[in-house]
Write a structure and sequence with these properties.
The structure holds 2 protein chains of 2 kinds. Chain A is built from no helices and 11 strands. Chain A is an all-beta fold.
Chain lengths: 114, 112
């Protein structure tokens, strides 16, 4: 399976600022996704990162708060904008070669907003 | 939409014993069911998966069973070892979409 490098691995940010998380896959993947994982909880899909077009957001997540880029088949970024303490969470990038195939994950970004 | 439930939320077993984690799903259109292991500070890693045309799949100490009629699937770990201690997530997805619906996770502790 492919390897995803995600950075930063962790960060502590001031409220009101923005953080951009980068996700690099070592091979081309059809689909890339961004998840949020609250401590001790399951994974919640934020959006599907579409190559060359706007991301597809899940209910409760909006582009102004979580802008996403995907300029090619191996790279994507997620920005957490105008952060508040409620945004403190683990953010995970995921890649998938095709529907109904393995989804593999980056190691996550642990974000703390103070 | 799909709803995946997972039980138990925590599980402690003695080393060498077996561990079983169960998941149910609601949408009969789901046809791909992966299991992920997440160690502290790491992203989830796929450990085994099963498709709806198969009832059981085994990989060394790990096996997954699927009952499509009852809409449930289970993870079985035999001869557990301390390094099996982690959080395990089940998931379900459909051919018509690409979203994974995750269970709530099971924290497994293997006691040496």
């Amino acid at each position: 399976s492919a390897v995803i490098s995600q950075k930063p691995s962790r960060d502590i940010c001031q409220r009101g600022t923005s953080l951009t998380i980068q996700c690099q896959v070592d091979s081309q993947v059809t689909m890339m996704f961004w998840y949020r994982q609250q401590p001790g909880q399951s994974l919640t899909l934020i959006a599907t990162a579409n190559q060359g077009s706007e991301a597809t957001y899940e209910s409760g997540f909006v582009i102004d708060k979580f802008p996403i880029s995907r300029p090619n088949l191996t790279f994507s970024t997620l920005t957490v904008s105008n952060m508040s303490p409620e945004d403190s969470s683990i953010y995970l990038c995921s890649g998938q070669g095709a529907v109904d195939t393995e989804a593999f994950f980056g190691q996550g970004t642990r974000l703390t907003v103070v | 939409g799909e709803n995946v439930e997972q039980h138990p939320s925590t599980l402690s077993v003695q080393e060498g014993d077996s561990a079983v984690i169960k998941c149910t799903y609601s949408d009969s259109a789901s046809n791909y069911f992966p299991w992920y292991k997440q160690e502290l500070g790491k992203g989830p890693q796929l450990i085994i998966d099963i498709r709806s045309n198969v009832g059981e799949k085994k990989d060394q100490r790990i096996a997954v069973t699927l009952n499509k009629t009852a809409k449930h699937f289970s993870l079985h770990i035999t001869e557990t070892q301390p390094e099996d201690s982690a959080v395990y997530f089940c998931a379900a997805s459909q051919s018509t979409g690409n979203q994974f619906y995750f269970g709530t996770g099971t924290s497994l502790t293997v006691i040496p």
